[in-house]
Amino acid sequence: MTPSGIPADLMPVQAASAAAILEARVACPMHYGAFHSPPVYVEFPDAERTFLEAAGRLGILVIEPGKEIAIS
Prior knowledge:
The chain is mainly alpha-helical. It has one domain (12-62). It has helices spanning 12-21, 47-57; strands spanning 26-27, 61-62. The mean pLDDT is 86.
């Protein structure tokens, strides 16, 4: 694969903002740490921490992948 130069993902702060815009109350981050494959894809450094901080500032509850919660 040849890199296109066009982003195919959201940065962590953008993902948290998208969740807020969509009025999500809960988010479950996934895929970070799974696809780091330069030069095709270079993972954002410290993506999990950055997302958790941004989501927290926006009042979005973040759950761990695979964890179950009751939604009412």
